[in-house]
Amino acid sequence: MERDPRRRGHRPLPSSSSSSGRTVIPDSRSNFVPSRRSHGEAWNRNASSFHSRGRSSRNPPPGSANSDGRDPSGTVSGLEEAAEESSGDVPSLVGTCPFMCPASEMAQRERLRDLAVFERLHGNPKKTSPDLAVKKFCRTISTKDVKSSDVRPLSVLENTLDYLLNLMDSSGEPFEVVHDFIFDRTRSIRQDLSMQNIVDRKAISMFEKMVKFHVISHHKLQFSSEGTHHLEVSSSHHLNMEQLAKTLTSLYHLYELNRVPDSAFENEPEFRSLYVLLCLNYESPMKGESLALWFRHVPASVIRSKEMIFARTVLRCFRFGNYKRFLDTVAAEASFLQFCILESHINEVRALAVSCINSSGYKLHPFSLANLSSLLMMKESEAESFCNACGLEISIDNHGNKMLPTKQSTFSRPKAGFGNYGFLCPGRTDK
């Protein structure tokens, strides 16, 4: 007699079916990203223990993408755009649109004067061209209502993405304007990839580029928020972090779809490390399962990589308040993308260092500002400004040297946040 699989703790995987009868794989995001629980249990595990697990039955088998880059299951279960940005209730499309924007959309937006500053031909708000217009993102869309002529194939999407990313350096517009335009149009690119179920290695390359865009935007927007449009920029920064989390989630799923056993992709260690670094923020957009459980899904070769070792070291130093090793490690080992994520935490760690020195120092022996600036890895003039921002006064000794008197009771973190201070990396020329 055949046993009921529901007994003895065995439960079938949850699934649902659409009206067309096709199985829809549940969204995996709720089981993917970490919460703010303690992560100390993960640091004491070695790489083999992280990797000694069977593949989850939710994950598709390695190499499951077809030769044309499409998921044979008919759905891109891990891509957030499959759930949020297309209905996924009919088989995937094959796009035929040869331009960055479908002709019908260009005509409609010309008529409605709905052209971004980058899309206007000779500055005319009512005129554009196929070389300027880029398809906008549409939240409510169903693949059964979309024509193939309105969907861009992979080659056009690749060229469109390269065109958009080139605007970051070549445009004369404020970065906030550039960001908002690229932000919307890259979502449209992900939407077209989703509707066509394109999940091959070219899709991985595109998602890596889009993650870079959101990381660099995180770096630039956090300092733009000090300007006159503070509320608008703060909103853009928040939305950017949301899309960074979604794009990273999709990228990790693509890694798994194209995984060859016991291997990792060339850029995977760095992009996996960004996830760990985002967990430094207690308001991180990466929310879900604990980081210790998340590590179990990461290949052992990635766990052992220098990028992941760096991220785990920095996270440990941040949690335990080891400000000196935190700053030294960031200065010596952080890549540009890693630094962009960590930059917002550097002044927080500096404030901790100043607080410790102020509270633990001997009142009759002030702390040299020159030594403090070296410890904080900033110019001496900026170190003085930083101390003043924390409510501390700087004095001058009999030899004309600037000193930080300790045991001051006025220390406080600035409510409006820290300014834009530099970060000196001795011996490095790539920062």
From TrEMBL:
Gene3D superfamilies: 1.25.40.990. InterPro entries: PCI_dom, SAC3/GANP/THP3, SAC3/GANP/THP3_conserved. One of its GO terms (biological process) is mRNA export from nucleus. Belongs to the SAC3 family. This is Uncharacterized protein. GO terms for cellular component: cytoplasm; transcription export complex 2. It holds the Pfam family SAC3_GANP. It comes from the Eukaryota. Transmembrane segments: none annotated. PANTHER family: 80 KDA MCM3-ASSOCIATED PROTEIN, GERMINAL-CENTER ASSOCIATED NUCLEAR PROTEIN.
